[in-house]
Amino acid sequence: MLRISINPSQPEESAVKQAANIIKNGGLVAFPTETVYGLGANALNQTAVDKIYAAKGRPKDNPLIWHVDNAKTLLPYVDFAACETIFPNFFTLIERLFEKSVTLVLPVLEKMSTENPKTLAVRVPQNAIAKALIAESSCIIAAPSANTSGKPSPTNANHVAQDLSDKIDMLLDGGATQKGLESTVISFCQLDNEKVTVLKTPQLLRPGAATLETINDIFHLTNQNPISLTDFSTTKKPLAPGMKYRHYSPNTPLILLIGTQTAVTEKINTMPKNIAVFRTNNLKLEKVAQTLFSTLRELDEQNFAKIVVEGVPETGLGLAIMNRLKKAATEVIIL
Ligand code: TXA
Ligand code: MG
């Protein structure tokens, strides 16, 4: 794997060109987005896309997000007419959502061949490196997070190298990602008996870097219906295919403690010595989000018997943070 450092605010043209050539030739390039690192390939080259699944050990039934530089790129693929019947300002709405690191699940045009999926998850990365790479490759880039399936998502280049160094062609090292959590996934459609219909109330599939408050504000500003909050604790059927797998797990058992600051402190004091503790109560949620996955990976490399993490309130970014922690936890203790 070729690893190149690249300036996150003004990406060097030579590095971008080199990476784009690999993508154009059917290879795999890991690159930073504003959320987490992605593992990219030309979305319309099936052989290249297959290589992503092999490198990550990703189950085949878990589709990939298409990364584009602009919503207009989607015109040949997405059934915008169907969306506009329900959302009159659909283009404005989705452009605003894309700016906030939201991934949208949209209906695919019926005229596309029957082998194609009926829905597509799409997003517009907001950082300079990803934007430059997409523009220079002049293709749509399919990219899941650049980790081995089941591991915490990579938020710096070392994480990618740890998981994938012998399995990919190139790694663009643009330093730590800005947000540290994956994009928020919301769906504008549902699939019933192979037929796709547009939802009047779009649904949250995965909480993430964009908070529900931000998303609902955008819906209200464009006079649309707000999205419905899915109660993840009671939903039996996984909403996004990727959510049925145990995710984001370090190898060391992880205990999530939920309770007041005092109760958490008391509980930690009763625990054996060889544990790592990640206290969150004094940190801003943005900071917890930014450092969560890297902290889990760092602690996992040391020889702790357990990793203990203090939960956060499930509002704002706390919803996504707790979603990842609950999935990573081997035990949740409510105090
Ligand atoms: O921030 C992010 O979203 C990062 C960066 C690299 O863009 N990407 C990412 O991709 O997290 P991945 O593959 O790790 O997660 C994508 C999620 C999965 O849960 C997948 O099941 C869901 O999106 N998804 C993809 N296509 C879908 C579709 N057509 N319908 C419903 N869910 C879909
Ligand atoms: Mg992932």
The number of distinct helices, counting runs of at least 4 residues, comes to: 10
Strand tally, please?
A: 14
- Main sheet: strand order: 1-8-2-3-7-4-6-5-9-10
Class inferred from helices and paired strands:
alpha/beta
Q: Give average pLDDT, whole number.
A: 92
Query: What about the largest sheet?
Result: 10 strands, mixed
Could you tell me the radius of gyration in angstroms? 20 Å
Name the shape in a single word. Answer: globular
Q: Which range does the strand content fall in? A: 15-25%
Bound molecules: threonylcarbamoyladenylate, magnesium ion
Ends distance: 46 Å
The level of helicity is 25-40%
- Return the string of H and E elements: EHEEHEHHEEHEHEEEHEHEHEHE
Account of the protein in words:
This protein is α/β, with parallel strands linked by helices and 335 residues long. The chain is built from 10 helices and 14 strands. Strand 12, helix 9 and strand 13 form a beta-alpha-beta unit. Helix 1 crosses helix 5. The protein is globular and about 65 Å long. It binds threonylcarbamoyladenylate and magnesium ion. Threonylcarbamoyladenylate binds next to strand 5, strand 6 and strand 10.
